[in-house]
Write a structure and sequence with these properties.
The protein has about 450 residues and is mostly helical.
Length: about 450
């Protein structure tokens, strides 16, 4: 089955692009931050400089790891879900669940090794850039040079491989435990259901977010900037928890908007609602990165804005530690924005391109290319609004508790245009990617697309 996995990778390279890019970018990010440990050791850093480098590696790298695992699991699950018909065919000719699992894990391991090896050079470049930022802000002395060694390499390759294999095992379990008839039905529709374990994990993450928020308001009240240690994590936990619940959220939103979209959108609205009901899994995969993007970006930026306002009100000057925390926050925001944006684009391209046959059949049934494109545009609006609303809810777990603890106000400091910019970027990425991919897809003649 390993040989079959390698042949599958060669023949279906485009189907694995989203997973590969998630692993590639994830390995580069992990290597960049993990190399700060190599830099601290090789450069002889001591005192605040050593603490800053270690914090960058452990705190930011740790959150990066969590996001990478989530992204790889999401894209691999989407890839396996799109191959339901292939899995059913293999089962019908005698493939056992164990053989299918080994094939899926083999594919993931092959992708992970290639992605991690190719991520070494970008990881080194990102690491140099990160150290340069620390030099410019005076947090690390300029005589400490960059070093990339065993910590960066082992963590980058090891974490990427382990997360890919773990994600593949999760995806394989779902694909192999259903019967052949059920697999064939899954190939026609993608009405993802929330499994018990997924619900448990979602509840755990949401509980952790609530716990961090309560601790911030109670224990950390009056503790100054130290309240960032608890509140800064809450939006990440909440965003992941809501992202895990995305299939149920998408189903609920579809039910609520079915009537108004059909009334206002005409044929395109009707097509969009039908698709959203039958393709819940793929759409939920697209909503997840929007939730992460909005929740963590909005929460972190307004967190720092509130902290800056509190220091200005007290007439304080930022210390080296304050600058380090601010740098950490903006690095986290930049990392999340970049990673979530790429994850969003990858997922949408993979999900939309896979619908070539669906688009062809819809056009043969009488829909015009403009109506198909309009339906995708309606879907994009719904996905964006859903992701923005859920992401905003996630950010509240950070913004409100920190504002109460630091400024005795639930209203965050900072311009409203920050929020508008984040929402606009999410909308542009979602709409432009989905509609652009659809335009390219429907250029194929309807008969040819329907037979693929």
């Amino acid at each position: 089955m390993f040989g079959l996995a390698m042949r599958s990778l060669r023949k279906r390279a485009s189907a694995f692009t989203a997973s590969f890019l998630s692993m590639f970018l994830g390995s580069a990010i992990i290597m960049a931050f993990a190399s700060m440990l190599d830099t601290a050791s090789a450069g002889g850093a001591t005192g605040p400089a050593e603490e800053t480098l270690s914090t960058m590696a452990i705190v930011v790298g740790g959150w990066g790891l969590l996001l990478v695992v989530f992204a790889v699991t999401s894209t691999l699950t989407l890839s396996v879900r799109q191959r339901a018909a292939e899995m059913a065919l293999l089962k019908s000719v005698g493939a056992t669940p164990g053989q299918l699992s080994r094939m899926i894990v083999g594919e993931a391991a092959g992708l992970a090794v290639a992605a991690a090896l190719l991520g070494i050079v970008p990881g080194m470049l990102l690491g140099r850039g990160l150290l340069g930022l620390l030099h410019d802000t005076g947090q690390v002395p300029g005589d400490i040079g960059y070093s990339f060694g065993s910590a960066g390499l082992s963590m980058g390759v090891g974490v990427t491989l382990v997360s890919a294999v773990a994600a593949a095992l999760i995806s394989a379990r779902r694909a192999t435990r259903v019967r052949v008839a059920e697999s064939m039905a899954a190939a026609a529709t993608d009405r993802a259901k929330l499994g018990r374990k997924r619900i448990v994990f979602a509840v755990v993450f949401l509980f952790l977010a609530l716990d961090e928020a309560i601790v911030t308001v109670t224990v950390m009240d009056g503790e100054g900037s130290n309240a960032m240690m608890t509140s800064g994590q809450a939006d990440i936990f909440a965003a992941i928890g809501l992202a895990l619940l995305a299939p149920a959220i998408v189903r609920r939103v579809t039910a609520l908007l079915a009537r108004p979209l059909r009334a206002l959108g005409g044929p395109s609205g009707d097509l969009a609602i039908s698709t959203m009901r039958n393709r819940t899994g793929a759409l939920a995969s697209a909503v997840s990165p929007v939730i992460l993007f909005v929740g963590i970006a909005v929460g972190t930026v307004y967190l720092q804005a509130t902290e800056n306002a509190a220091m200005d009100a007290a007439g304080l000057t930022k210390s080296a530690e304050d600058k380090s925390i601010e740098t950490l926050n903006f690095v986290v925001t930049g990392m999340v924005v970049l990673f979530a944006a790429i994850m969003l684009v990858n997922t949408l391209i993979a999900a939309t391109a896979h619908r070539r046959r669906e688009f062809g059949q819809t056009r043969l049934a009488g829909a015009t290319p403009r109506q198909v494109l309009g339906a995708v545009a309606v879907e994009s609006v719904v996905l964006t609004v859903t992701g923005v609303v859920c992401g905003t809810v996630a950010s509240v777990f950070t913004i409100v508790p920190f504002g109460l603890a630091r400024r005795d106000s639930a209203t965050p400091d900072g311009s409203v245009w920050i929020y508008v910019a984040v929402v606009a970027l999410a909308a542009v990425l979602t709409g432009a990617t989905a509609c652009g991919t659809t335009r390219r897809t429907i250029r194929v003649p309807a008969v040819e697309a329907a037979l693929r």
